[in-house]
Amino acid sequence: MWLARAILGGGFIAERSFRQADRIRINDRIRAREIRVVDEDGGQLGVMPPFEAIKLAKERGLDLVEISPTADPPVCKITDYGKYLYQTNKKAHEQRKHQKGSQLKEVKFRPATAEHDFQVRKNQIIRFLGEGHKVKAMIFHRGREMAHQEVGRAKMHRLLGEIADHALVEIGPRMEANVLMALLAPKRGGGAPPAKPAGAPAAGQA
To answer: What does the radius of gyration of the chain's CA atoms come to, in whole angstroms?
Structure first.
């Protein structure tokens, strides 16, 4: 997968396999007429033709890596390509790991949910958000309750107000068939999740 070509000064320029060439351009594979160049520390070196940037990279024993090909002009970084690829793969792995650990929880209410049960379910939502999960808060309407949707909406607005320090509302509140729902995401810097009440029912129980 990897080849290395020695250059003056003892440095190396990493050459990619053909499979990688379709994804990240480096050195002579960069085709833009002009590029914006940043150094290893993110410092701006200005706009220049690729051959000038490649010359700067070689002088430092590094590579010229195209990091933002859709920008105008494309942005390239003088860096060690092997190190750049490792950091990119590590960041993607961490993102996948975070996505895998995060789940969508559902917490169900009724327009007539009693005060004690309301508080239990509200604390479940806060706890789920504190653990990094998204939560779908749902108020189910049955029969004649559909004729008095303002009761469910009032309960939903109360809920969102009481968890505002912990939640960002991504979707809703909106009606979907007989369900008033809101999709909630954790708010950065939100308060600590509450302790689980003794004998609290599982999320989603009506």
So the answer is: 27
Q: For the purposes of burial, counting CB atoms within 10 Å of the CB of 108, is it exposed (0-12), middle (13-18) or buried (19 or more)?
A: middle
Residue with tokens 């189910």: 140
At which residue do the structure tokens 């994804």 appear? 23
Helix 149-162 with 115-130: angle, nearest 10 deg: 50
Q: What is the pLDDT of residues 85-94, one digit of tens each?
A: 888 888 877 7
> Could you say which DSSP state residue 112 is in?
T
Dist CA 11 CA 20 (whole Å) = 21
Tokens describing residue 109: 């209410």
CB distance 141 to 179 below 8 Å: yes
pTM over 0.85: no
Both tokens of 144, joined, read 């004649």
| pLDDT above 80 for 78 | yes
pLDDT at 5: 42
Taking the CA of residue 40 as centre, how many other CA atoms within 13 Å lie in the half-sphere pointing to its CB?
A: 10
Structure tokens at 165: 């320090």
Residue ranges and CATH numbers for the domains of the chain are 3-98 (3.10.20.80), 103-186 (3.30.110.10)
